[in-house]
Amino acid sequence: MTAVQPETHTDPASVTAFPTDFVWGAATAAYQVEGAATVDGRTPSIWDTFSHTPGKVRNGDTGDIAADHYHLYRDDVALMKDLGLKAYRFSISWSRVQPTGRGPAVERGLDFYRRLTDELLEAGITPVATLYHWDLPQELEDAGGWPHRDTAQRFADYADIMAHALGDRVGVWTTLNEPWCSAFLGYGSGVHAPGRTEPAATLRAAHHLNLGHGLAIGALRAALPSSAQTSITLNLHQVRPLTSSAEDADAARRIDAVGNRVFTGPILDGAYPADLLQDTAHIVDWDELIHDGDLAEISRPIDVLGVNYYSPTVVSHPAEGAGTTKNDGHGASDHSPWTGSDHVAFHLANDNLTAMNWAIDPSGLHTLLTDLAASHPRLPLMVTENGAAFDDYVSPEGKVNDPQRVAYLHAHLDAVRRAIADGADVRGYFLWSLLDNFEWSYGYSKRFGAVYVDYLTQRRIPKASAHWYSDVIRNNALPDGV
After folding, report:
1. Angle at which helices 69-83 and 107-122 pack, to 10 degrees?
2. Catalysed reaction(s) (predicted)?
């Protein structure tokens, strides 16, 4: 299978079918699955440091071993083939291939990704590479991290290394995964690595992540064949006001600005939104932060926008004297990730919750996709992450039955199908996640995988949802019922 290509969509009257050549995949991230933390020259990333810091990750868990994908990738690719996956979205560990974040690559690190992509191609599975899924080399963080402008240039250099190493094998490239989490959870609330709680650093990191993306797109385009496709993946918040009041509408506007438009504005439209700049002018000097030429770099054209969705974001303006509620779904902290809008209150959309205490609401995915299609009609979309954590266990018969996940996937895939029927150019869907894995600050306490991982033995057991998803892929259509 080749890189994602344009296709003619099916008749909107179709009830269950997806477009011909719709890309069916699954996704993982390097630190969450690879393990082999010190193998073949790899040095610590910010997540190695963070997870080894007492109190930062539940149960003291680390990604040192994770799902040992580094050693078991051949078995995992065989499993993907058995399930019928058409594409595999993986991320590259920056500190595995460029340990200091500067200078030449380590060939042993590059060789792992060469072996992985060769194995995928041999199995008929399209490799989709993400350059950055939150694991900044620790040496770059020590030099200032994403709030430091030089990190953006280091990222572009790294993109150039990877394009030359894998450009003959990988035709679809993503620069950043969820830069909102990198900036606002990493430098704002501190619940993600590097664990800093500095409002100004948060906004500086956001701008330099944007700049790093643009510079990396330039580096990729200079090195890759013209057929290659480039993208960025954003976890866009489907923001809803709790009530129809003007105050709640303003709360939604503020969160949309700091949660979405801080990235979509410069990347897709070539400018930061005026209301974001006004809301945050007391925190950072944007005139000093944004250099001449930055916005032109950041807004380099991309071929597809990756969209990650799990749950809607419901907000309100709290009553006078009332404290703000913390149901924003992004972990407990005394510091808000919503820089400049930390007075906004967050609410659950409903009481139908996953094990992450995230509300299940597939209508948010439909709205997100159709709104993007309306605002940027010529930009193809990919759902690059969607899934749910539940309390999975192995039955005495050795099976993992997860009907809640099957229901979740059915409802959200139907939302994707309906968005396509309503005119959204959605080219594919990547289930999060292929494997149970290290779930960041939750350690191994949450299971998102379609495949169960016994962390003591590394045994893989496809869950009922994996078999269900395999049927969907084979039929290119949803079944009539769950």
Report:
1. 20
2. Hydrolysis of terminal, non-reducing beta-D-glucosyl residues with release of beta-D-glucose
C-alpha angle 102-134-130 in degrees, rounded to nearest 5: 80
pLDDT digits (tens, 9 = 90+) for 12-25: 334 479 999 999 99
Q: Which residues make Cβ contacts (< 8 Å) with residue 127, sequence separation at least 6?
A: 87, 88, 90, 116, 117, 120, 121, 166, 169, 170, 172
Tokens 């030099």 correspond to 143
124-174 per-position pLDDT tens digit: 999 999 999 999 999 999 999 999 999 999 999 999 999 999 999 999 999
Cis ω before 377 (30° cut-off from 0): no
Q: 419: helix, coil or strand?
A: helix
- At 289, the amino acid letter reads L
What is the arrangement of strands in the sheet containing 239-241, beginning at the earlier edge strand?
Answer: 239-241, 313-316, 345-347
Per-residue tokens: 113: 């990704």
What is the CB neighbour count within 10 angstroms for residue 82? 12
61: Cα within 13 Å, side-chain hemisphere: 21
pLDDT digits 0-9 by tens, 258-303: 999 999 999 999 999 999 999 999 999 999 999 999 999 999 999 9
For residue 430, what are the β-bridge partners? 25
* Tens digits of residue pLDDT in 46-95: 999 999 999 999 999 999 999 999 999 999 999 999 999 999 999 999 99
pLDDT band with cut points at 50, 70 and 90 for residue 4: very low
Q: What angle do CA 266, 218, 131 make, to 5 degrees?
A: 85
Concerning whether 385 is annotated as a catalytic residue, the answer is yes
DSSP state of 323: P
Element (H, E) at 151: helix 150-166
Whether 478 contacts 472, CB under 8 Å: yes
Measured distance CA(415)–CA(372) in Å, rounded: 14
The two three-digit tokens of residue 432, written as one number: 């999060």
Give the integer Cα–Cα distance in Å for 289 and 75.
47
pLDDT (0 to 100) of residue 446: 98
The identity of residue 226, as a single letter, is S
pLDDT over threshold 50, residue 307: yes
Q: Which of 119, 141, 297, 385 is catalytic?
A: 385
- Give the helix/strand (H/E) hosting 128: strand 126-132
Cβ neighbour number for residue 223 with a 10 Å cutoff:
16
Element (H, E) at 421: helix 403-421
Q: Tally DSSP H helices, then E strands, for the chain.
A: 17, 13
Residue with tokens 């809803």: 240
Q: Is 288 among the residues known to form the active site?
A: no
Provide the residue type at 64 as one letter: D
